[in-house]
Amino acid sequence: MFTGIITGVGRIVAVHDLGSSLTYGKRLAIATPAGYLDDVGLGDSIALNGACMTVVAIDLPQNQFQIDISAESLAKTTGLAESSTVNLEKALRANDRLGGHIVSGHVDGVGLVSHFAEVGESWELRIEAPRDLAKYLAFKGSVVVNGVSLTVNRVTDTPHHTEISINLIPHTVQNTALQHLAAGSRVNLEIDLIARYVERMLSGVNTAFQDLT
Q: Which of 93, 23, 31 is nearest to 65 (CA)?
């Protein structure tokens, strides 16, 4: 589990194929800030741009770690198959502060940045989310964008997609990889975990099973 509060910004510095066909995934090497891996061990979970990954190798002198990402994960995420800057978050400890919100590290969809510009001292980020995520996105609700816990300020529904508007304070822009976004960028989205369960409870699935008894 995670909180959506970024603990470091890294960079994918190497991508190696794990096989010779598209059914195979890739091994990634990620460079991190100095000292970032001092408390990380093999098998630990680290979220890359919001996608939970398992550490399979550590190179402390180079401040790098490696992860294996499956073909399925590559197909359902963006920005994890080539050299790029990525947001990093170590898994939540039981005694950590929950500064953002409860985040699973499972990407629900890929959104498209439609607008990213300064407004006063802050930045406005607008993202077109897949239509099937619309029911989980709400005014003042939480959403994860490339691993960052953010608050939705406006929701606009169209027949083809749902656009959400988010305000970013300077600290968030300066200390995460979101600063590299631009109109046309693709981003990983994770919906609020509580919204996921509420939708399931309201879907009538349990009632349907009760009617069969």
A: 31
The 3-state DSSP class for residue 126 equals strand
Q: For residue 108, give the nearest of 150, 144, 79 by alpha carbon.
A: 144
Q: How many residues does the chain have?
A: 213
pTM of the model: 0.91
pLDDT at residue number 100: 86
CB atoms within 10 A of CB 213: 4
Single-letter amino acid, residue 43: G
- Give me the chain's average pLDDT, please: 93
Q: Is the Cβ–Cβ distance between 50 and 147 less than 8 Å?
A: yes
177-184 CB contacts, 8 Å cutoff, 24+ apart? 177/9, 177/49, 177/85, 177/86, 177/87, 177/146, 178/87, 178/125, 178/145, 178/146, 178/148, 180/85, 181/113, 181/116, 181/125, 182/113, 182/116, 183/113, 183/114, 183/115, 183/116, 184/112, 184/113
Task: Tell me the CB-side half-sphere exposure of residue 163, using CA atoms within 13 A.
Answer: 12
Hey, what domains does the chain have and what are their CATH numbers? Answer: 8-90 (2.40.30.20), 109-200 (2.40.30.20)
Query: What percent of the chain clears pLDDT 70, i.e. is strictly above it?
Result: 96
